Every structure is written in C-alpha cells, then in structure tokens.
Amino acid sequence: MGGLWLIFLCVFMGLSCFLVRFLRARISTRQVQASGIVERKAAESIFQNDKLLYYRLQNLEDHPGALAQAQGRLIQLLDITVDSALKSTTPNFLSVPEFCLQSLRAYLADVEAATADAWASYLKRRSSGGGRELFHTSESAKQWLRLSAPVRCVDGAWLSRIHHARTPERLRPSTRIAWQILSEELGDGILERNHVYIYSKLLQSVGLALGPGNSAQFIELASDPDRDERVWTAAVAQLALGFLTDNFLPEILGFNMAYEAATIETLICAYELKEIGMDPEYFNMHITIDNADSGHTAMAVQAVMSFISALKPSETIQSWKRIQAGYLLAKMLPVTPMPVSKHREEVLSIFSKKCDPAKELHRRCTARIGRSNGKKLGEWLDPVLWETQKDLFLSSLAQSKWIVPGNPRDSNLVRQMGWGGRMFGAFTLREKTKVEEWIRNMTSKHREVDGEAARGRYAEFTGYSPSSPEIIPAKLAIAFQKGDCSLGIAYNPVKPTCIPVQILPSLLIEAATPLQYCIDSPANCATEQGIVAVRIMRILNGLPHPEDAVLGMDEVTCPSEGVVEIAWRVDKTVKQQRRLETSEMNDSSDLLVALQPWLWLDNVARSPKQNYWFLIGAQEGFVAYVLANTAGLRKGGLPDETAFQLGAISEMMQREMSELTCPQPEQRQEGFWAVIRCLEETISRSV
Ligand SMILES: [Fe+2]
Ligand SMILES: [Fe+2]
Q1: What sign does the CA torsion over 671, 677, 680, 685 have?
Q2: Is residue 38 part of a domain?
Q3: Structural domain of residue 383, as residue ranges?
Q4: Which one of the ligands is nearest to 256 CA?
Q5: What is the reported pTM?
Q6: Staple 530 to which of 178, 359, 454, 524, CB 3.0 to 4.6 Å?
Q7: For residue 195, which ligand has an atom nearest its CA?
C-alpha cells in the first residue's frame, strides 16, 4: 500500500512540474507576443502621424496649424539623431568639433572616398558573377520606386523658404547659393527638368499612377503593407525644415551639405534600373548634378562657408553645432525603403496563379477591399487588369480588416484558408504557410530610437531652443479687405511720374514677395502654374534664363544681383547720402519698418493655391508701375544704370507673364489694383 502511495506521489509531482513549466512557457510567449504588438502599434502610430503630417504640410494653406506640429516632430528627430551620434563609437560628423575649412573638406573627402570604395566593391562583386543587390526582379524595383515616392516628391523641400524677400541682408549671399540649388531641383523653370516631374514620369513608365504628391490618393497609394514606412518620416523632416527656415537656418545648411552628396544607394539604383530596362534618368541626374566639384555638393559647402563668414565671432560656436545637428539628421534618417520583402513577392506570385479560377468564384462576393480605391474582390481579380493592379490589391488587402499585421493566427484571411473556412482547399499547405510568413513579417522594420530617452538632447548639445513658429491663417478674406481692391474696371490709375528713391528699397523688396510662397511645395512646382512661378522667382533673384547647361558654381563665384540685393544697395546709398547732408550718424529710417504697410501682401501670398491669380496680378502691378517705370525711377533720384537694370528685369518678367492664360481675370485685376492702391498711398506719404 505504502509503495502504491509512493508511485502516486511521484506521478503527481511530475505532472505538477510539467504543468508549471507549461504555464510559465505559455505566459512568457504571451508576454513576448504582447510586447511585440505594443511595439508594432507604437511604430504604426508614428507612421500614421507622419503620413498625416506629410499631407498637411503638403497642403499647408489649408492646415496652417501643422507648422507647430512640424516643429515638434523636427525637434524630436533632431533629439534622436544627435543622441545616437553622441553615443556612437563609429566616427561621425561630430569629429569636426568646430568650424575649420580644412577639417571640413578633409571629412567630406573621406565620406566621398568611402562611397567610391563601396561602389568599387559593388562593381567587383557584380563582375565576378554576383547578382543584383537592390532589385531582384523588375517587380521588386517597381515596388521600391513606389515606396520611395513620398521622399522623391518633396525633392528640394528643405530649401523651400531659404531665400526670401525679408531674409536679412548679411545672410543673403549664403541663402542665395542654397536657393540656386533649390531652383535646379525645381527644374530651373523648365518642367521637363523638374525633379519631381521626372520622378512622376518614371513612375508612370512602370505603370504606377500615384497622382500628385500633395493628394490624399497619393498618401494611400504610396503606402507599404509591410509597414516599412520610414521614408514618410524623412519626407516630413524635409518639409518641416523648408517651412521653418526662420528657426532652423544653420540646421538646413548642414542638412543640405549632407543630403546633396552622392550615396551608394543612388549609384546602385541607377545601375540596376538600367539592367532591368527601366529609365535610370532620375538617379543618373542626381549623380551628375550633385557632384562635389561644380555641382550641388560644392555649392552646399560654399553656402555653409558663406554663412559662417557672415556671423559674429560670438555666434560661431553655437551655429556650428546647429549645422552639425542638421548634417546628422540628413545622414541618419533613411530616405530609401527597405528592399521589397521576398515574402511579398512570393504571395504576389501565388495570387497571380489563383487569379483566373478565383475570379469566377468571387463574382458574387459583395465585400470591398481598399478605401478610396476600394473594389469588389471580383474586380480586383479580373485577369485582364490583374498585372496593372496587383500591387495595389496586395497593399489594400494588407491594410484591410482581413489581416492583422504580424499575427497570421488572428487574421481572417488565414482562418478562411483553414479547415471550415470558405477558402479551404483553394491553397496548398505550402502556399498557406507563405501567406502566413508574409503576414508575420508585416511587423515594423522601423526601429525609431526611443524619443523619450533622447528628449532634450538637441537643445542640450546646441544650447538652442527655437521659439514657436508664427502661424498665420493666410486667407485672402481675413488678410485683406476685399473692398479696398474692388475698384472696378473704370479705375484707371496714372503711372507715378516720380518714385522717390528713399521709398524704392521697400518697394523692391515687396516686388519679390507675391510669388515667393508659390514654390513652397515641390509637388506644386511640377505643374504649369508652379513652373511659371519658379521662372519669375529666378528672374527676381538675379538668375539668368537657363541655357542648355546648369549654372552650378559659375553663378556662385560670379553672382548677379537680384531685386532685393538692389534694394539693399540703394538703401545703403540713400543712407550714406543723408549722413553727408545732415551729418547724422543714426539712421532713423529702418528698411524693415518701411515694409509694414505691405504686410497684407505677405499674408495673401501665403495662400498661393487659393490666390494664385491675385498674386500674378500683384506681381504685374510692381512690374508695370515700379520696375518698368524707368522715367519715374530716374526722376525720383535713382541712378540711370540701376534704373536700366530694373528695366531689363521687368522686360524678362513681362515676357513670362504675358504667356499665361488666365481663367480668373477678375482676381488677377484685383491683385493689380491692390498693389497700385498701396503704391499710391506709399508715395503720397513720402512726399
Ligand atoms: Fe533632386
Ligand atoms: Fe541636388
């Protein structure tokens, strides 16, 4: 009996141990799964927020409040990148601790040499029989191009407000160089050379019609079902920098210096796209135009040097740290998507095989997959359209309620493939496993360093905390009293016979204002209206008509004056003259104060989409009544040479604007009258 009890006790203890071990294993598996889900949800919400912010910044005039959100996100990204550079054991840009041209050039030469080495190794691997490394198939290349679109469609955005009518005089030599880079990104006023336009042509050539980069449709179609959406974050950083120039100028110049350097990804991409038979022009162009001798890289370095030389000695240390922060941001935020996963390619090929028989079976199925581009299953599986819509189908499916990303077991799609499911038997075990792997791998590839842990690192490193950005609800109706400019067709103002030279500087600065925000969005500049604005801004900024070649460093070493530069020169002469006449050492007249009556124009200009034709009219007002008014300018005391210089600028601008076909002549006329009215008041106040 005692023996029996002993056996029973042993069995009971053995079972208990097994049960405890089993339960422990279950609990820890659940914990791991739960933490994975929490992490994934956090990464997904980062992407969703970045996508939303991207859309709002691309349409800023409808969402002016997005500026504050953009500044918060930008600081968070600067915190993260500065923090990880400080902790990093590999050499980075912090190894140039203070501005020294020699050290800077040596560092950049090392970076360039590393890229050249990586390129040589790649070519060696390929020539000794190695396969393509970025694109395994043309399908994966196509997907990569689609997923890269968010960042390609903001090409140049980080420079969008770098060189404005009100940019302080001492900074203008530097910002002008950077603006020239922006102009080249925007195609120098020629649509076929515009980088966003060229990229959209490339997408179209491979059958991808994502729509303009600032549309809601684009946000959906450029999304990634595998949740590798890090490019949205990089694109948001670029847009934020562009809009926040007043608060982040040194960071932008540093960012520009890093971003304009050719990367190994660009070299490989151009090479492999050509092999696959796709047009590599967009990437080839970035290899040549960004060169370090006379191209964007050289110009970016020159812009930094010019900026530093404009600073007071006491400003240099902090400004250099801020340039470093911007440089690190560009280097550490990935701008290319992860290569398309093999799981996605496998699932696409499985669905492609099933497409024909499946279509009939799903003919009466009413469920829709996809949001704005949603279709019934039978429509998605149409064998005639399948090739052109299969990527979109997979993206839509991955984002639908049929799939729980990262969790095949809870995904309805997988359940329906199993016993008792409506698709049981339609997929082999191997195929079902491939679909499960695809879903399991939809976890985020984006591993953003904990923003909380890095909080405050950028401010700590640079000693700089920007103030809140100025948010102006820039609507014509709010900013401007419409009654003031509705003067009617009978109103026929007389061209001023005398424009006093002392008020001319403020008028010239205002003449550069109307269209300056039209080039805020690279997506808008890839349109007919946007490209005209680029051409006009080029003329106002003193850049000549683009010939067959880009200007590159030629224009940097020998710059021509823009109207704002002329304004500052005239202002100086007037003040010198007054000092001689009155022996006054203090100038009571401040150019920026003289701009106050024109603030309404700056506000109206901030809604370039809504007010485009009003602004064209305003620009015409300045051209006809100020720049081309050579007689009035000379009578007011402007030297002949400068009056003729302005005359030549006005002729070029008139040519550009005369070719525009205007669907809203009333708005155009209102803009014209509004400027004339304000001009008359300014002149009458001055005499
Ligand atoms: Fe570009
Ligand atoms: Fe560039």
Answers
A1: negative
A2: no
A3: 342-440
A4: 2
A5: 0.84
A6: 524
A7: 1
